[in-house]
Specification:
The structure holds 3 protein chains of 3 kinds.
Chain A: H1 3-33, H2 40-58, H3 66-88, H4 93-119, E1 134-137, E2 140-143, H5 144-166, H6 168-178, H7 180-185, H8 190-215, H9 223-237, H10 242-263, H11 268-282
Antiparallel strand pairs in A: 1-2
Helix pairs in contact in A: 1-5, 1-8, 1-9, 1-10, 2-3, 2-4, 2-8, 2-9, 3-8, 5-6, 5-8, 5-10, 6-8, 9-10, 9-11, 10-11
Chain B: H1 3-23, H2 27-52, H3 61-76, H4 81-103, H5 108-129, E1 134-135, H6 138-142, H7 147-169, H8 171-181, H9 183-188, H10 193-218, E2 221-222, H11 230-243, H12 250-264, H13 270-287, H14 291-299, H15 312-319
Chain C: E1 2-11, E2 14-24, E3 29-33, H1 40-47, E4 55-60, E5 63-64, H2 70-75, E6 78-81, H3 93-100, H4 108-120, H5 122-126, H6 137-149, E7 155-159, H7 167-182, E8 186-191, H8 194-200, E9 203-208, E10 211-217, H9 218-223, H10 225-231
Helix pairs in contact in C: 3-6
Classes of the chains: A mainly alpha, B mainly alpha, C alpha/beta.
């Protein structure tokens, strides 16, 4: 195996980890609330900027600021739910999905425009002391700042799985995502579940953004691209398993990388799109997931 | 309003528009008008797929961009203008056919997601393949006047509106609306729903390409991938919703409202304008699905011509017992 | 215990329930009977706050339930088991029962409630680790009832408990309903299976196209000629 291909594979896996992390939040919002938040990538972007400014203004290392980013964007998620998505969830499921798609589409562009206004259109990257350090496996470089994204993704998936299966709230989440009417009849405060699930989803996007601004770069326009990746991952993996989502993210990263090597980096996006269409055509419920209404 | 009267009126409006274009020297007004017409044409073309056939596509910018790119490249490459425009439209239509076949197998949100993915993928790829700015050569710039682009944009808008009107009354259009109202029911009565969806997809793509051509002729210099930007999709969808999705003139109404409103807004900051229109969009989607057409119809005391929500009523009726 | 007066429910412009009034007294089983589409389920959903009321009042133990969200109504002791598959398929029996107690305030009561449910439904104890989706129809219904009992209701509302079940299983279920009533939980049930319902109910109402057309005790209605002709195979 040539060195180029091997390095590609590694890069793809590392990037794929972040795809998985971004997808976790999107899956949570879609699975529990039946809301498709196209502005998810913009929340990632905001998280990335938050981490960036925490680093440049207050000197906070991005790993140190991770909890801060999580909490702040959790709050933003609550606000977005109360101010916007709450109204979308009033409709029944079919209309809800369509409306949330349109509404969040508008939100995405609005957030993007605001970001250009306040942050300028320049690309930002967090450059820490260890930004250029890497592990080496033979001739393959594994940059620490990119490995971090994969590690955070795996941890997040495991934590989410634990919450969903062991905690009372997690079970309420699963019940609500199966059938919110029955959940309400079981005595579960569905609005509260929605609120918190959405906020967690936003916070997850934000910590992904943190890792993106550390290992790659952020700029106001990256949102939609990340949302698309997350959507593709969710479609690949289905909604049943957090672990499955991270794995699917890694798979997507791999496919993109290998496609880059063979047909050229300019056509990466097309490769992802084709994979997406193929999976959707043959397996509308994804590889790992249970059927979702 | 009886047909012959409406047609005469429309003709008068058209003549007036042409005359206006030829007489006004004010380049700013011409620019604004041209932009409105390009957006109106794009929105009307989207409306054929999204409003008539009920397939909400979020990747419309791909066809607009392709039309613009091909027209620009061929025109600046020395080909005659009509040839460039025709080739752009035809190639885009073919591309739409190729892409549409797998895409249209997707339903509802998956279609929206798939087309969004298409739009973004094409945008990024275009940016990769044509990173350099595209500028009109110096000789053209010297005598550049917006009257030509204005008239062409007007022509494109007229063609698009005529296509829309014709479709609304044709069997093809009725088939599309049947798919929109209840696809399963239509299939059950033997309608080839896929064919109707594909027809809507290809027609709307070809018309979008024309709008793209108008944009290519109108722009002095721009980055080619700008024409592929999702902003175009958003503005077209926004304007179609605001004006009244599914209606004939809703998208046109909406674009006038949008472009004029944007110009009159007290704030010059582009970004706040986007926020404002984003909010308006949200309000329209959640509260006023019929948009301006619905509001205007109510004011005039009659139901807006063929105002429809995007199949919501069918769904609601189906879900309750 | 439950007083419903002049209830009117509509789906947009389509009105389904027209001025329905009924009562459920303590320690009794009340049935609302009638054909498909009469508005029975709509009435129940409205009681539980899942559908808005156009008009009318609902008082539970003297308290007006207007405007209360569903989970709070459950917290006050009125619990509904919806039609079919009331349990969460993707969760285990144990998890379902655990969730049933979601609205319980005292945690100690949980153990007690669980014990009672396993006493009434020993088969659930056997299957506690199984996913609810793998249970048989009758077992799923038992789980649904058990889950509802975990919330320690004072009034249990059942929507078509016999639906989709074999006659023998239906008899079991109705036997369970009697036992529940004997333990001090009132029952309101909506049923299409008129004969069996009249045998078990203390009082019943007949709902047709959104209005109550007949009311009375079980024997009274059984003796009513109209009821006999319309619903009983006599």
């Amino acid at each position: 195996m040539s060195q180029l291909v091997a390095q590609s594979i590694v890069s793809g896996i590392l990037l794929g980890g972040i795809y998985g992390l971004v997808a976790l939040g999107l899956a949570l919002a879609f699975g529990v609330l039946n809301v498709l938040n196209v502005a998810h990538g913009e929340l990632l972007m905001l998280g990335g900027y938050l981490a960036f400014f925490a680093f440049t203004r207050w000197g906070l290392d991005p790993f140190v600021s991770l909890p801060l980013v999580f909490i702040v964007m959790f709050g933003v998620g609550i606000l977005l739910y109360l101010g916007l998505f709450r109204f979308v969830t009033k409709a029944e499921i079919h209309t809800r999905i369509k409306n949330s798609l349109l509404v969040s589409f508008g939100l995405a562009l609005a957030l993007q425009a605001l970001a250009v206004r306040f942050f300028t259109a320049d690309e930002r990257t967090i450059s820490t002391a260890y930004s250029s350090e890497a592990f080496t496996l033979g001739s393959i470089r594994i940059p620490i700042v990119r490995l971090a994204g994969l590690v955070v993704a795996v941890i997040a998936a495991l934590v989410l799985e634990w919450i969903l299966s062991r905690t009372r709230f997690g079970k309420a989440l699963r019940a609500t995502s199966e059938d919110w009417t029955r959940a309400a009849l079981t005595g579960i405060d569905v609005r509260r579940v929605y609120q918190i699930a959405f906020a967690i989803s936003a916070a997850l996007a934000a910590i992904a953004g943190s890792m993106v601004s550390l290992g790659y770069s952020v700029s106001p326009s990256i949102g939609l691209g990340w949302t698309l990746k997350a959507l593709i991952v969710v479609v690949l993996a289905g909604l049943g398993s957090m672990r499955g989502i991270v794995l699917a993210g890694i798979a997507l990263g791999l496919v993109e990388s290998l496609a880059s090597v063979w047909i050229g980096g300019q056509y990466r996006e097309v490769a992802a799109l084709v994979l997406f269409l193929i999976v959707l055509s043959f397996r509308p419920h994804g590889f790992f997931g249970r059927a979702h209404a | 309003m009886p047909r012959p009267v409406a047609s005469v009126l429309a003709l008068l409006v058209l003549v007036a528009a042409v005359a206006l274009g030829l007489s006004i020297g004010d380049q700013h007004v011409l620019t604004l008008a041209t932009q409105s017409m390009i957006l109106a044409a794009l929105a009307t073309s989207w409306n054929i797929l999204g409003g008539f056939a009920g397939q909400i596509s979020l990747g419309h910018s791909a066809f607009f961009g392709l039309g613009a790119l091909l027209t620009r490249e061929l025109w600046l490459g020395g080909r005659a203008l009509p040839v460039a425009i025709a080739v752009a439209a035809v190639v885009t239509a073919v591309a739409a056919c190729v892409v549409g076949i797998p895409m249209l197998r997707l339903r509802d949100i998956y279609f929206a997601i798939g087309t969004l993915a298409l739009g973004v993928a094409v945008f990024i790829t275009a940016g990769n393949l044509w990173p350099g700015i595209s500028s009109l050569p110096a000789e053209m710039l010297r005598s550049y006047d917006f009257t030509g682009p204005y008239l062409f944009a007007l022509a494109v808008l007229v063609v698009t509106l005529l296509a829309s009107i014709w479709l609304a009354q044709s069997k093809l259009g009725l088939g599309m609306m049947a798919v929109r109202e209840d696809e399963e029911a239509a299939k059950a009565t033997g309608v080839n729903t896929f064919a109707y969806k594909l027809a809507a997809f290809v027609i709307s793509a070809a018309l979008a390409a024309l709008a793209g051509s108008a944009f290519a002729l109108f722009s002095v210099s721009y980055y080619p991938n700008f024409a592929f930007s999702v902003i175009w999709t958003f503005e077209a969808v926004l304007v179609a919703f605001i004006g009244g999705i599914g209606t004939l003139f809703g998208p046109l109404l909406g674009s006038i409202f949008f472009i004029v409103g944007r110009d009159l807004m007290p704030t010059n900051v582009d970004e706040f304008q986007v926020v404002f229109f984003g909010l308006l969009f949200v309000v329209v989607v959640l509260v006023f699905p019929g948009g301006l057409s619905q509001a205007a119809g109510r004011l005039l005391g009659r139901r807006a011509a063929k105002a429809r929500t995007t199949g919501d009523r069918a769904t609601a009726a189906r879900g309750r017992s | 215990m439950l007083e419903v007066e002049g209830l009117e429910v509509a789906y947009g412009d389509l009105q389904v329930v027209w001025g329905v009034s009924f009562e459920v007294h303590r320690d009794s089983i009340v049935a609302i009977l009638g054909p498909n589409g009469a508005g029975k389920t709509t009435t129940l959903l409205s009681l539980m706050g899942l559908l808005p009321r156009k008009a009318g009042s609902v008082r539970f133990e003297g308290e007006d339930l207007s405007g209360l969200p569903t989970h709070e109504i459950v917290g006050r002791g009125m619990v509904m088991i919806p039609e079919e598959r009331a349990a969460f398929q993707t969760l285990t029996v144990a998890e379902n029962l655990e969730l049933g107690a979601y609205s319980l305030r005292e945690k100690e009561a949980f153990g007690e409630a669980l014990g009672e449910v396993f006493e009434i439904f020993p088969r659930l104890a056997e299957r506690r680790k199984q996913a609810a989706g793998t249970l048989s129809g009758g077992e799923r219904q038992m789980l649904a009832i058990g889950k509802a009992l975990m919330a320690r209701p004072r009034l249990l509302i059942l929507d078509e408990p016999s639906l989709g079940l074999a006659p023998i299983v239906v008899e079991d279920i109705f036997g369970v309903i009697r036992r529940i009533r004997d333990r001090g939980v009132s029952v309101l049930m909506v049923e299409q299976h008129v004969e069996m319902a009249l045998e078990v109910a203390d009082y019943a109402y007949i709902l047709e196209t959104g209005s109550i057309v007949a009311r009375g005790t079980g024997p009274e209605l059984e003796a009513d000629v109209r009821v006999q002709e319309a619903y009983l195979s006599l």
